[in-house]
Amino acid sequence: xxxxxxxxxxxxxxxxxxxxxxxxxxxxxxxxxxxxxxxxxxxxxxxxxxxxxxxxxxxxxxxxxxxxxxxxxxxxxxxxxxxxxxxxxxxxxxxxxxxxxxxxxxxxxxxxxxx
Amino acid sequence: xxxxxxxxxxxxxxxxxxxxxxxxxxxxxxxxxxxxxxxxxxxxxxxxxxxxxxxxxxxxxxxxxxxxxxxxxxxxxxxxxxxxxxxxxxxxxxxxxxxxxxxxxxxxx
Lengths: 115, 109
Known about the structure:
Largest sheet of chain B: 6 strands, mixed
Shape of chain A: globular
Largest interface: A-B, 20 and 20 residues
Largest sheet of chain A: 7 strands, mixed
Radius of gyration of chain B: 13 Å
Structural class of chain B: mainly beta
Shape of chain B: globular
Distance between the termini of chain B: 37 Å
Number of strands of chain A: 11
Number of helices of chain A: 0
Mean pLDDT of chain B: 93
Radius of gyration of chain A: 13 Å
Low-confidence stretches of chain B: none
Strand content of chain A: over 45%
Structural class of chain A: mainly beta
Helix content of chain A: under 10%
Number of strands of chain B: 11
Order of helices and strands of chain B: EEEEEEEEEEE
Number of helices of chain B: 0
Order of helices and strands of chain A: EEEEEEEEEEE
Mean pLDDT of chain A: 93
Oligomer: heterodimer
Helix content of chain B: under 10%
């Protein structure tokens, strides 16, 4: 069974440029998460989707970050414009549901470097 | 006080050693507890859930102490392949998972 797929794996951009990350969750998983992980830190949730609905986006910096999951399957996370402090790993995860019993499976992440 | 606190390490131990990590949490309403493993430049992967009665999976034993609000992970007979960062993760109800910063383990030959 294919795991969570993310692309690109690496991205280098200059500050003030836009950037987008793509995630395809495990087939059949209704819940999709985007996390941010800085070096030496644990992942921090940016947004959680139940199907196509964003049910928790309280930690998403909405002035520059946006996300969508239009058909309830794959998802895109965008940053516009990027800042130096956005350099981090952006992880996507999915689970069969949102309950505490559901295991989250992570993708390999997109490593972003903003110059 | 941070919601989940871990000793960042690194813990450098020889092969065959026993090593233990602790993690404290501040939210007494936390209901679910996990240990995730993250290899260098890889994604986190679930190592094991932590149950109230404690649970064991091979060389790994997880314990929960609700009264003192901490969980622990014990690794016996450490292998080189155990070298990784171990993330303590908690959840309260249907809220998102909260990750600790992780504890780095290096097992040395």
